[in-house]
């Protein structure tokens, strides 16, 4: 081809413009392929950021403009068209990607997600958590998930492409890659799980078959303890810091360290009555004196916003929670570690809790101690350096459990014993039986997914 022909084609084919603002008629493309730019919204000037957000509904929170590039490319697709991008997969796991996840779930299909975190996917070395993601303008069908290592090569990629084209095939292994075909993708704008293809297949299977741990129908609730806004003022080991009915025994992280609940003597100086109303300090002179010794309480935003209620904690205290048996979990730990608090204590905000009106809490504790529960947490939660997991309520609610009525007396006894003995292996064997997991899937549970 002559230079002149090449220049003419370039002028015809290439447009130099802002892809997120340039006017292009929707549904004009059969295929969109790209590696979009990574620019945080915070790095844009205010006018540009505001215009992008007003134009593309998925660009919310403190995200990255590649989210808008994906939405724009999807909007251009003809029926049956596809978007294939290699870019960071963080939008699948973070809150700022919720709008895009919801859009994809409602109107498009996920066809491929090939995770390539350890592959030199770009000419220069970058820490971008890349993945090849293919989305299509059609109804959701099966989806291929692949997890690669540094050994992933051109020949492995070619073999994976060939395998992906045969809908009758479920599993694939080659040098540097493992893949699995899921019957469908995950619904809604919730976080999309991560992990090995086999682990994702198990999570999807259990998600389809069982209800959430947090379920109003079983009277089971997952939540977080009380945030005070100033622990120095509200948390004390002095039982006489205020009037006796204002001193609420408080469950804290150190009470769980041994695997059984061992109260270390902390109290919450509680400004709330049994009906959830803020008490009048004039009725409690000792508590008033205690709070007066912490003048910083009046400097908090919540106090300045309502000076007459300056002595309130950030969260209300719900009196009926105190007496209930609770499974308590630390916020950050490498493995799920539920501990039974038999009742009489209120959880602090560094603890998450599970209460239920239908479950035997020791049986449920056995299920949560198992590697089945661990698999859900690893699939959804943020992993910190050193392998520490964040056990937040949003991730705990992702755990699926069988109905309490489906657990036989014998199985309940085994789960109860495993929980009391802190025996993860026994809990996992019993839980696998409760979930109806076959031996092949059980092998997936015993091999941990690790990713920093």
UniProtKB/TrEMBL annotation:
Sorted alphabetically, which InterPro entries does this protein's record hold?
DNA_methylase_N6_adenine_CS (IPR002052), MethylTrfase_TaqI-like_dom (IPR011639), N4_N6_ade-DNA_methylase (IPR050953), SAM-dependent_MTases_sf (IPR029063)
A molecular function annotated in GO for this UniProt entry is: site-specific DNA-methyltransferase (adenine-specific) activity
Gene3D superfamilies in the record, alphabetically? Vaccinia Virus protein VP39
Q: Which UniProt keywords apply?
A: Methyltransferase, S-adenosyl-L-methionine, Transferase
Domain Type II methyltransferase M.TaqI-like spans what residues? 24-122
Instruction: Quote the EC number.
Output: 2.1.1.72
Q: Which reaction does it catalyse?
A: a 2'-deoxyadenosine in DNA + S-adenosyl-L-methionine = an N(6)-methyl-2'-deoxyadenosine in DNA + S-adenosyl-L-homocysteine + H(+)
The family database entries (PROSITE patterns) matched by this protein are listed as: N6_MTASE
Q: What Pfam families does the record tag this protein with?
A: Eco57I
Question: What enzyme class is recorded for this protein?
Answer: transferase
Instruction: List this protein's GO terms for biological process.
Output: DNA modification; methylation
Family statement = Belongs to the N(4)/N(6)-methyltransferase family.
Q: This protein is called what?
A: site-specific DNA-methyltransferase (adenine-specific)
UniProt source species: Luteimicrobium xylanilyticum
């Amino acid at each position: 081809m002559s230079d002149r022909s090449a220049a003419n084609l370039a002028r015809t084919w290439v447009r130099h413009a802002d892809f997120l603002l340039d006017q292009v008629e929707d549904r004009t493309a059969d295929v969109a392929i790209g590696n979009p730019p990574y620019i945080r919204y915070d790095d844009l000037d205010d006018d540009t950021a505001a215009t992008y957000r007003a134009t593309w509904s998925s660009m919310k929170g403190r995200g990255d403009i590649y989210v808008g590039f994906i939405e724009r490319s999807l909007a251009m697709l003809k029926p049956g068209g596809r978007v294939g991008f290699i870019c960071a997969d963080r939008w699948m796991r973070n809150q700022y990607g919720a709008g895009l996840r919801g859009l994809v779930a409602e109107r498009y299909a996920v066809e491929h997600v090939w995770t390539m975190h350890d592959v030199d996917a770009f000419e220069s070395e970058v820490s971008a958590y890349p993945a090849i993601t293919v989305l299509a303008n059609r109804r959701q069908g099966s989806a291929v998930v692949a997890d690669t290592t540094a050994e992933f090569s051109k020949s492995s990629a070619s073999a994976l492409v060939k395998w992906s084209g045969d809908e009758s095939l479920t599993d694939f292994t080659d040098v540097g890659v493992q893949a699995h075909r899921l019957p469908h993708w995950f619904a809604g704008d919730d976080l999309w799980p991560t992990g090995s293809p086999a682990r994702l297949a198990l999570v999807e299977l259990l998600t389809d078959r069982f209800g959430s741990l947090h379920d109003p129908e079983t009277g089971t609730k997952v939540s977080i303890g009380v945030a005070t806004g100033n622990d120095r003022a509200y948390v004390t080991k002095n039982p006489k810091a205020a009037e006796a009915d204002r001193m609420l025994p408080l469950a804290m992280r150190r009470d769980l360290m041994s695997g059984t609940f061992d109260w270390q003597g902390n109290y919450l100086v509680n400004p709330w009555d049994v009906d959830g109303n803020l008490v009048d300090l004039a009725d409690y002179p000792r508590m008033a004196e205690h709070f007066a010794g912490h003048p910083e309480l009046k400097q908090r935003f919540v106090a300045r916003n309502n000076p007459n209620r300056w002595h309130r904690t950030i969260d209300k205290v719900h009196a009926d929670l105190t007496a209930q048996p609770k499974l308590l979990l630390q916020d950050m730990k490498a493995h799920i570690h539920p501990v039974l608090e038999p009742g009489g204590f209120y959880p602090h905000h560094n603890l998450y809790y599970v209460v239920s009106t239908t479950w035997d809490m020791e049986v449920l504790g056995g299920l949560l101690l198992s590697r089945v529960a661990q698999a859900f947490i690893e699939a959804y939660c943020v992993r910190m350096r050193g392998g520490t997991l964040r056990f937040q309520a949003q991730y705990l609610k992702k755990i699926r459990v069988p109905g309490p009525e489906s657990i036989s007396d014998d199985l309940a006894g085994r789960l109860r014993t495993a929980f009391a003995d802190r025996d993860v292996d026994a809990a996992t064997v019993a839980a696998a039986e409760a979930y109806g997991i076959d031996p092949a899937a059980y092998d997936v549970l015993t091999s941990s997914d690790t990713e920093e």
